[in-house]
Amino acid sequence: MGGVDSRTAPDRTAVATATAAAALGFASAGISAYWALGGTALLDTVGGDIERWGRERGTAVVAALWTVVAIKVVVALAAPVLVGVVANRLPAWTRSVVLRALGWTTAMLLTAYGAVLTIAGVLIEAGAIDADATADDRALAWHTYLWDPWFALWGATFLVALWRTRRTELSGRRS
Q1: Which residue among 46, 55, 78, 91 sits deepest, i.e. has the most Cβ atoms within 10 Å of its Cβ?
Q2: Contact between residue 4 and residue 95 where contact means Cβ atoms under 8 Å apart
Q3: Residue 2 lies in a domain
Q4: Is residue 3 part of a domain?
Q5: How far apart are the two ends of the chain, measured CA to CA in Å?
Protein backbone atom coordinates (compact mmCIF):
# COMPACT_ATOMS: atom_id res chain seq x y z
CA MET A 1 0.00 0.00 0.00
CA GLY A 2 2.72 2.56 0.91
CA GLY A 3 2.49 5.86 2.69
CA VAL A 4 2.62 6.54 6.40
CA ASP A 5 2.31 3.55 8.70
CA SER A 6 -0.78 4.10 10.84
CA ARG A 7 0.68 2.02 13.70
CA THR A 8 3.44 4.52 14.46
CA ALA A 9 3.03 8.18 15.29
CA PRO A 10 4.95 10.67 13.13
CA ASP A 11 7.76 12.57 14.84
CA ARG A 12 7.15 15.94 16.45
CA THR A 13 8.95 17.91 13.76
CA ALA A 14 6.80 16.29 11.08
CA VAL A 15 3.64 17.13 13.01
CA ALA A 16 4.79 20.71 13.70
CA THR A 17 5.75 21.41 10.09
CA ALA A 18 2.61 19.73 8.75
CA THR A 19 0.56 21.87 11.13
CA ALA A 20 2.42 25.00 10.01
CA ALA A 21 1.84 24.08 6.36
CA ALA A 22 -1.85 23.53 7.05
CA ALA A 23 -2.13 26.88 8.87
CA LEU A 24 -0.41 28.73 6.00
CA GLY A 25 -2.70 27.00 3.50
CA PHE A 26 -5.89 27.69 5.44
CA ALA A 27 -4.90 31.35 5.91
CA SER A 28 -4.27 31.68 2.18
CA ALA A 29 -7.61 30.01 1.46
CA GLY A 30 -9.27 32.39 3.90
CA ILE A 31 -7.96 35.45 2.06
CA SER A 32 -9.13 34.02 -1.25
CA ALA A 33 -12.55 33.23 0.27
CA TYR A 34 -12.79 36.81 1.55
CA TRP A 35 -12.17 38.08 -1.99
CA ALA A 36 -14.64 35.54 -3.41
CA LEU A 37 -17.28 36.87 -1.00
CA GLY A 38 -16.72 40.39 -2.33
CA GLY A 39 -14.11 41.78 0.05
CA THR A 40 -11.69 44.24 -1.49
CA ALA A 41 -9.14 44.90 1.27
CA LEU A 42 -5.62 44.14 0.05
CA LEU A 43 -6.91 43.42 -3.46
CA ASP A 44 -4.74 46.28 -4.69
CA THR A 45 -1.70 44.37 -3.41
CA VAL A 46 -2.09 41.65 -6.07
CA GLY A 47 -2.22 44.17 -8.91
CA GLY A 48 -2.74 43.84 -12.63
CA ASP A 49 -5.54 41.93 -14.29
CA ILE A 50 -6.22 39.88 -11.17
CA GLU A 51 -7.00 43.02 -9.19
CA ARG A 52 -9.19 44.36 -12.01
CA TRP A 53 -11.08 41.06 -12.36
CA GLY A 54 -11.55 40.91 -8.60
CA ARG A 55 -13.13 44.36 -8.59
CA GLU A 56 -15.37 43.57 -11.58
CA ARG A 57 -16.73 40.48 -9.74
CA GLY A 58 -17.82 38.60 -12.84
CA THR A 59 -19.38 35.16 -12.37
CA ALA A 60 -16.36 33.43 -13.89
CA VAL A 61 -14.00 35.27 -11.54
CA VAL A 62 -16.05 34.39 -8.46
CA ALA A 63 -16.23 30.75 -9.60
CA ALA A 64 -12.47 30.74 -10.20
CA LEU A 65 -11.85 32.20 -6.74
CA TRP A 66 -14.00 29.50 -5.10
CA THR A 67 -12.08 26.89 -7.09
CA VAL A 68 -8.83 28.38 -5.78
CA VAL A 69 -10.24 28.28 -2.24
CA ALA A 70 -11.15 24.60 -2.63
CA ILE A 71 -7.71 23.72 -3.99
CA LYS A 72 -5.97 25.60 -1.18
CA VAL A 73 -8.10 23.84 1.45
CA VAL A 74 -7.32 20.42 -0.04
CA VAL A 75 -3.59 21.19 -0.11
CA ALA A 76 -3.74 22.58 3.44
CA LEU A 77 -5.39 19.36 4.64
CA ALA A 78 -2.93 17.21 2.70
CA ALA A 79 0.10 18.02 4.85
CA PRO A 80 -1.21 16.62 8.16
CA VAL A 81 -2.99 13.76 6.42
CA LEU A 82 0.08 12.67 4.46
CA VAL A 83 2.35 12.69 7.50
CA GLY A 84 -0.15 10.56 9.41
CA VAL A 85 -1.26 13.04 12.06
CA VAL A 86 -4.68 11.37 12.28
CA ALA A 87 -3.92 8.23 10.27
CA ASN A 88 -5.85 5.97 12.64
CA ARG A 89 -9.03 7.95 11.90
CA LEU A 90 -8.72 8.03 8.11
CA PRO A 91 -9.32 5.40 5.44
CA ALA A 92 -6.28 3.46 4.23
CA TRP A 93 -6.39 5.10 0.78
CA THR A 94 -5.23 8.37 2.38
CA ARG A 95 -1.86 6.69 2.94
CA SER A 96 -1.41 5.59 -0.69
CA VAL A 97 1.82 6.01 -2.62
CA VAL A 98 -0.06 7.97 -5.31
CA LEU A 99 -1.37 10.56 -2.85
CA ARG A 100 2.04 10.83 -1.26
CA ALA A 101 3.62 11.44 -4.69
CA LEU A 102 1.00 14.11 -5.37
CA GLY A 103 1.87 15.67 -2.03
CA TRP A 104 5.59 15.76 -2.89
CA THR A 105 4.81 17.28 -6.29
CA THR A 106 2.50 19.90 -4.82
CA ALA A 107 4.95 20.85 -2.07
CA MET A 108 7.79 21.21 -4.57
CA LEU A 109 5.64 23.32 -6.91
CA LEU A 110 4.51 25.62 -4.09
CA THR A 111 8.10 26.05 -2.93
CA ALA A 112 9.50 26.67 -6.41
CA TYR A 113 6.68 29.04 -7.40
CA GLY A 114 7.09 31.13 -4.27
CA ALA A 115 10.88 31.07 -4.29
CA VAL A 116 11.32 31.99 -7.96
CA LEU A 117 8.85 34.85 -7.75
CA THR A 118 10.32 36.08 -4.47
CA ILE A 119 13.85 36.07 -5.89
CA ALA A 120 12.70 37.87 -9.03
CA GLY A 121 10.87 40.43 -6.90
CA VAL A 122 13.89 41.01 -4.67
CA LEU A 123 16.09 41.51 -7.75
CA ILE A 124 13.62 44.05 -9.14
CA GLU A 125 13.26 45.82 -5.78
CA ALA A 126 17.06 45.98 -5.45
CA GLY A 127 17.40 47.45 -8.94
CA ALA A 128 19.42 44.50 -10.26
CA ILE A 129 16.85 43.95 -12.99
CA ASP A 130 14.32 46.35 -14.44
CA ALA A 131 10.61 45.96 -13.88
CA ASP A 132 8.22 46.24 -16.77
CA ALA A 133 7.26 49.87 -17.41
CA THR A 134 3.63 49.05 -16.54
CA ALA A 135 4.50 47.27 -13.28
CA ASP A 136 2.52 48.26 -10.21
CA ASP A 137 5.19 49.14 -7.61
CA ARG A 138 2.87 48.58 -4.64
CA ALA A 139 1.73 45.17 -5.86
CA LEU A 140 5.30 44.21 -6.71
CA ALA A 141 6.45 45.04 -3.19
CA TRP A 142 3.59 43.05 -1.62
CA HIS A 143 4.38 40.07 -3.82
CA THR A 144 8.09 40.32 -3.04
CA TYR A 145 7.74 40.58 0.72
CA LEU A 146 4.49 38.75 1.53
CA TRP A 147 2.48 36.87 -1.09
CA ASP A 148 5.29 35.02 -2.87
CA PRO A 149 7.35 34.16 0.24
CA TRP A 150 4.11 32.88 1.79
CA PHE A 151 3.82 30.28 -0.99
CA ALA A 152 7.51 29.40 -0.63
CA LEU A 153 7.15 28.94 3.14
CA TRP A 154 3.93 26.93 2.76
CA GLY A 155 5.66 24.61 0.30
CA ALA A 156 8.84 24.37 2.35
CA THR A 157 7.01 23.43 5.55
CA PHE A 158 5.04 20.82 3.60
CA LEU A 159 8.32 19.46 2.14
CA VAL A 160 9.93 19.21 5.58
CA ALA A 161 6.90 17.34 6.91
CA LEU A 162 7.04 14.89 4.01
CA TRP A 163 10.82 14.53 4.33
CA ARG A 164 10.56 13.76 8.04
CA THR A 165 8.13 10.92 7.28
CA ARG A 166 9.94 9.50 4.24
CA ARG A 167 11.20 6.46 6.17
CA THR A 168 7.65 5.30 6.77
CA GLU A 169 6.96 5.95 3.10
CA LEU A 170 9.92 3.79 2.06
CA SER A 171 9.15 1.02 4.58
CA GLY A 172 5.55 0.99 3.39
CA ARG A 173 6.74 0.29 -0.17
CA ARG A 174 8.94 -2.59 0.97
CA SER A 175 6.20 -4.34 2.92
Answers
A1: 78
A2: yes
A3: no
A4: no
A5: 8
Number of domains present in the structure of the chain: 1
**pTM confidence score:** 0.88
The answer to the question of residue 7 being in a domain is: no
User: Rounded to whole angstroms, how far apart are CA atoms 98 and 101?
Assistant: 5
Burial 136-168 (b: 16+ CB within 10 A, else e): beebbebbbeebbbbbbbbbbbbbbbbbbbeeb
Cβ–Cβ < 8 Å for 106, 28: no
Residue 173 has a pLDDT of 52
Q: Is residue 134 part of a domain?
A: yes
Q: What angle do CA 91, 92, 97 make, to 5 degrees?
A: 130
| Low-confidence residues in the chain, pLDDT < 70 | 1-10, 168-175
List the domain range (segments joined by +) for residue 87.
Answer: 12-174
